[in-house]
Structure formats: C-alpha cells, structure tokens
Specification:
about 20% helix; disordered N terminus; Alpha-Beta Plaits; six-stranded antiparallel beta barrel; about 375 residues; about 30% strand; six-stranded mixed beta sheet; alpha+beta
Length: about 375
C-alpha cells in the first residue's frame, strides 16, 4: 500500500476528496492543476492507455474546478463569457465552449453544464476563470452570483464504462445522450453525471456534490468495475493527442485565438448577443490568421514520454512553428504531435524538421485527429460486453 510520506505535500495546494483513495490504489506521482494535486502516474503510461482503450479507467479529475453561475441574469451573463451561441442550449445539456478575453484570446476551453434555467457550471481547464467571471460581473449590471461550489468530478472512461455505469445506476443510465447530464443519487451520495470526458473514448464524468463522500464514491465505483476490468488511472496523453484534444497552456493559451486552433465553429459573430472579445474576433476573422494548429507525424525512435518543452519546427533554414504536444502512439506505431505552424506550411504532406533538443526529426503535416476522426467511439450508443 502506498503512503504519502515521500510526496512532500503542503497545505497551500489543495487535495481532492479522492486523494487518499488514489494513493491507496497506487498513485505514484502528482502534478498541480488549478491549484490542486492531480495524480499523473499509476505506473506505465502505455499500460494506462491500453487499460483505457480496451476496458475502463477511473481518473481523479477534481482539479476540473466548477465556476457556478446563478441568478436571474445567469443565462445572459454566461453568454457574455463565450463566443459560442448558447440560445438553443437546453436544461440538462452540456456544451464545449471557449472563454475569450477582449483581444479574442482563449482564457479557457471548458465544458459548460446547464443544470436549470438560471443555474450553470463551467467545468474548467487549467486557469482562474472564477476570478475572471467575478471581474466581468462587477460592472455588468446583471443579477448574478458567482462562486466555486463543493463539486468534484471523476472521469470513468473506456469502452466498458457503460457497463460499469449500468452496475451503479441501472439500465436507465444507458439512455443518457452524448453531452447531456442528469442529477442522480447513489446510495445517498448526491451526483451529477454527464456523458463527457477528456479521452475521445466512451465515457462519463461523475460530479460529486459532497466532498466528504469522496472516498466512499471512489470505492463504490471501483467495486462495481471489478468484473469489467476497471483500473485506477490518469488522463492519457497518448489518447488525447490521438484524438487531437487541446490541452490548455500547451496547445492554446491567452495569446491564441479560436481560429488558430480550428475552433471557428465555436464563434458566432452574427448572433445579436454581445460577448467579450466579439469586436476583436470580427477583425481576426476578416484579416485571417498567420498560424494554425496542425497534426504532424515524425520519424526516429519512439518517444519515451510526452514533450516537456516546445520544440522548434523548421522548413529549411526558416523557423515556422513549434511542437505543442508530442507522444508515441503504441496503437498507431508512430510518433505524433500537435504543432502550431505558419499558415504557409500547413498543407497536408508538407515536409518539416523538428529540433527536439536531443536530436533532429523529419516530420510531415497530416490529418488530425489521428484516430477515430469522427469521434464515433465517444458518441456511440453501443455498450461493449
């Protein structure tokens, strides 16, 4: 059994309600995300990948802090924060959205959940949107209350996740549609469950609404999943890069706009509603962008882990971009990466050179996502048996 004696944790960084459970179940290393510890190592990352794509893994993602927005003007205020048109968003629905600043820069790419007509959660990537939202609200003149609730999500992801949810909640849970949510109770534990996740696989996010029950919830899920090969795990860099899912601070940041990362579909410049960054994004849309996020494949020995720095990309003697996220895919048997590259070098088949600092690799621009480009696995109704 693992202990925390060698981790050197302090009180200035928060622990999740599942922290002790993850240590018991073999968490070996942690990093910090949204001012909270997140397990990053349960052993071999490649085995974690295969556990995810073949069976199921349970991940502590309580670091996805919620910004709760309520009040009579909550819906109007939430629309101010994002360029995505929310006019057709129904109660019980989830949306992938961008939050932009006045310059059109991306501050976060969260999942938005609508629990009631004027009750929203913003389930965050790694940045302080709570402070941003409270600041935007100060002079808005709108009736909104903004806070961080006692809500801590887990991710249950993989092809067997539906079977495990069936064990926990019965057959009715299988009718939960992709990007929809339900408020549920599991033996007295209050939850919100959504068909979402950061894996590109069939999966669910289970939002605990009482942090004191974190240990109990973790153990109940692991027990229900035992017969289906469920393993404790961590979000898989391999799978999310295969799926071309953005990692904030790596593939996008405050100096990146939606068009550069191929998310112009999440920007509605024609809607009547105003939002922060609308004027700037209109100008960017008119003038175009000078760089874009692309997929690349590159040669050489398999990477032993993800890149920890941005690698320079060249075309001849010209620096044309940087690798943002790179990994070796044991399924595709190749090194793959997301890269921010000058628009003059983004055509499929363009030859490039990567300087990894350890060596030089030959690369080529390719289609992304690298696997299951239509997201059929994540959105599928099928439950593997």
């Amino acid at each position: 059994m693992s202990t925390t004696s060698n981790f050197g944790f302090g009180t200035q960084i928060r622990k999740s309600p599942y922290f002790d459970a993850t240590v018991r179940w073999g968490a070996r290393d942690f990093s910090v995300y949204n001012h909270m510890y997140i397990p990053r190592d349960f052993g071999n990352p490649e085995q974690n990948f295969w556990n995810l794509v073949n069976d199921a893994i349970l991940c502590d993602v309580a670091v996805e802090r919620q910004v709760e927005i309520t009040g009579s003007d909550a819906a109007k205020f939430v629309q101010m924060l994002t360029p995505r048109n929310l006019s057709n968003m129904q109660v019980g629905q989830c949306k992938y959205v961008l939050i932009t600043n006045a310059a059109g820069g991306i501050l976060n790419d969260p999942i938005l959940l609508r629990l009631a007509e004027n009750h929203f959660w913003i389930s965050l990537a790694d940045s302080d949107v709570l402070f941003w939202a409270q600041g935007v609200a100060v002079n808005s003149g709108l009736d909104v209350q903004i806070n961080e609730p006692d809500v801590s999500p887990l991710q249950l992801q993989g092809p067997k996740s539906g079977l495990i949810m069936q064990e926990l909640f019965g057959d009715e849970i299988l009718s939960l549609k992709y990007y929809w949510l339900r408020e549920l109770d599991l033996d007295g534990i209050p939850l919100v469950v959504s068909r979402t996740g950061w894996s590109s696989e069939l999966g669910y996010e289970i939002y605990l609404r009482d942090g004191s029950k974190g240990d109990e919830l973790w153990e109940k899920i692991m027990a229900a999943g035992q017969a289906h090969g469920l393993k404790p795990g961590h979000t898989s860099s391999i799978r999310r890069i295969e799926g071309a899912m953005l990692s904030y601070h790596a593939d996008a940041d405050i100096n990146t706009n939606p068009y550069e990362v191929g998310l112009g579909r999440l920007v509605d410049l024609e809607m009547d509603a105003d939002f922060v960054g609308k004027d700037a994004l209109k100008k960017i849309h008119q003038t175009g962008v000078s760089r874009q996020l692309v997929g690349i494949e590159f040669d050489g020995a398999p990477l032993t882990g993800p890149n920890t720095t941005f690698w320079q990309i060249r075309a001849g003697d010209q620096i044309v971009g940087k690798v943002t996220s790179a990994v070796y895919s044991p399924r595709l048997l190749k090194n793959i990466a997301l890269a921010m590259v000058s628009t003059s070098h983004t055509d499929i088949g363009t030859a490039l050179v990567i300087d990894t600092k350890a060596d030089i690799r030959n690369a080529v621009v390719c289609e992304k996502p690298f696997f299951d480009p239509k997201k059929k696995l994540a959105s599928s109704w099928a439950v593997n048996t």
